[in-house]
Amino acid sequence: MSALPKAETDTAPKRVLVVEDDVLIRHVIAQAMRDAGLFVVEAGSGTAAMGYLGSGAPVDVVFSDIEMNGADDGLRLAHDIRAGFPDIPVILTTGSAMPSYLADADAFIAKPYQISSVLELVTKTLGVTRDGAE
Length: 134
What we know:
Rossmann fold; five-stranded parallel β-sheet
């Protein structure tokens, strides 16, 4: 009897949803994650991120800025993810003072950050090595 083939998700790169309203920052961090072997989807707002999650597309971790233009922010996004998608870890970041309330976040990293520190935190949260392997 032969072993069953692994499911596609067993070998697929881990999926990160990067939520950041500053296009340049979003592009740089997303590209660094791609270079580290992760599959990255970018969203420019909490509303766009929730729309993506609501589509049923698989996401393994969300990395979001707290302070974004518009009505939604990263704290609200983390709360909404915790309520609707409790198995998806959320990592928050901001260049302002660390908020006193981070109960809906799994981790926090202050801006300005080193890209290597973000990659380390994301891969640690995912339980994978830097090249995307488990």
